[in-house]
Amino acid sequence: MNAELFDLFREHMELQDKSSKTIKSYRSALVDFDKWLFDVKEITDLRIVAFREIKNYREFLINKYSPASVNQKLIAIKQFYKFLTERKIISTDPSETIKIQKISDNIKSQYLTRSEELAIMNRAKLMGKREYCIIMILLKLGLRPSEVSSLRLNCVHLSGDPTLIIKNSKRSKSRFLPIPPDTVQAIKDWLIIRNQSTKIYHQRSEYLFTSQRAERMGERAIQRVVEKIASKENIRLYCTRLRSSFANDLLQEAKIPISILSNLMGHENISTTGRYLTASEHDVRKYVNKISEL
User: Are the CB atoms for 154 and 242 separated by under 8 Å?
Assistant: First the structure.
């Protein structure tokens, strides 16, 4: 029955002229919600869900994803139940009073502490060369998981001035990222392991990261590496937080001009980069204490 509801909702979104990307994103969010309901609540029919189930699911999402990702998933659920109510498939909308996350309320936890960074890197080392390389690229170069998954071998230049070329980014323009020494070494170490594989689909693969059964490691697999580290270290961690920490480190420690950071991040509009200028609670206290007379 749930599959039929998903199909009806898809047809509704198509009539609303939603993009194929939005339709795919909404369906993915609903499939995840459906699976959680079955695994945790043993509920198999989305029509009988009440406010409490959605609220519990929101708490589950908050502990696993960034505020922006939580909101994206909640909006999909809210739109789905609004649709079911309007079609009179259900009598009341259980998601109507569910509130989305306030992004501004999460500023102080947006960036990793140095202690968290060290714990994440150490855990990644224990997991393997590939996982450590992935974490270093996410943390030290600020890539999106989709960009990490799409990295090709011919985009990685380790000789001379080590550089990573990111193609097909959000603005469909290539950007060139200097690779720091620690990340260069992580890539070299992974390439030794990768190039020793005797699997044909690994040998013919043009991608930097391969999986056990495919010539390319998918975006979701990249995210799962981060989620596994979060679980092992009991850290609230997601790819967006690694990317935010990269930006914050460059702004606070390296004092990089925001125009240069915008290019490194692949932002089309510099105002998007401006959100990383928001200081953490620790930074604010540090600055204010500097004018203390004691």
Answer: no
Half-sphere exposure (CA, 13 Å, Cβ side) for 5?
A: 23
For residue 200, what pLDDT is reported?
87
The pTM score is 0.64
pLDDT in tens, 197-222: 888 888 899 999 999 888 999 999 99
Spans of all domains in the chain:
2-105, 110-279
CA-nearest of 196, 186, 191, 162 to 176 is 162
d(CA 132, CA 103): 29
Q: What is the pLDDT of residue 105?
A: 47
How far from chain centre, in Å, is Cα 97?
27
* Phi, psi (degrees; rounded to nearest 5) at 140: -95, -15
Residue pair 5/46 in contact by the 8 Å Cβ criterion: yes
Ranges of residues in the chain with a pLDDT under 70 are 102-109, 168-172, 275-294
DSSP letter at 274? Answer: G
Cα separation, 223 vs 228, in Å, equals 9
For helices 20-36 and 67-86, give the axis angle rounded to 10 degrees. 90
CATH fold for the domain made of 2-105: DNA polymerase; domain 1 (1.10.150)
- CATH top-level class of 110-279: mainly alpha
pLDDT at 68: 79
Q: What is the largest CA-CA distance in the chain?
A: 69
- Do residues 72 and 25 lie in contact, with contact meaning Cβ atoms separated by under 8 Å? yes
pLDDT of residue 193: 93
